[in-house]
């Protein structure tokens, strides 16, 4: 996954500026980002503070790690089943 140019705290600050009443096009121009990025962040991180955002990213990383572990176990299981079928 591509890394963001913006840190979690920067994203939170940009969203707080928008909540304070700064127009979105002005924010986008000031920070050099697209309005699509802003609206994506708002839908994903709206109402969060920095600690919640950090916790969410930790959970996403753990979830990805667990998915990879599950895929590896399933692959091993398939190989074992195939070997057992050939044996009989």
From TrEMBL:
Entries under SUPFAM superfamilies matching the protein: Homeodomain-like (SSF46689)
Coiled-coil regions listed in the entry: 49-76
Q: Kindly give the Gene3D superfamilies that the UniProt entry links to this protein.
A: Homeodomain-like (1.10.10.60)
- Keywords, in A-Z order: Coiled coil
Q: InterPro entries, from UniProt?
A: Homeodomain-like_sf, Transposase_8, Transposase_8_domain
The GO molecular function terms of this record are: DNA binding; transposase activity
What GO terms describe the biological role, i.e. biological process, of this protein?
A: DNA transposition
- In its UniProt entry, what is this protein called? Transposase
Q: Which species expresses this protein natively?
A: Magnetovibrio blakemorei
């Amino acid at each position: 996954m591509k890394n963001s140019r913006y840190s979690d705290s920067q994203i939170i600050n940009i969203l707080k500026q928008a909540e304070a009443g700064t127009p979105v096009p002005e924010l986008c121009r000031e920070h050099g980002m697209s309005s699509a990025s802003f609206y994506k962040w708002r839908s994903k991180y709206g109402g969060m503070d920095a600690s919640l955002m950090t916790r969410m990213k930790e959970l996403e990383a753990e979830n990805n790690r667990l998915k990879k572990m599950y895929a590896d176990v399933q692959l091993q299981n398939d190989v074992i089943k195939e070997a057992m079928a050939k044996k009989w």
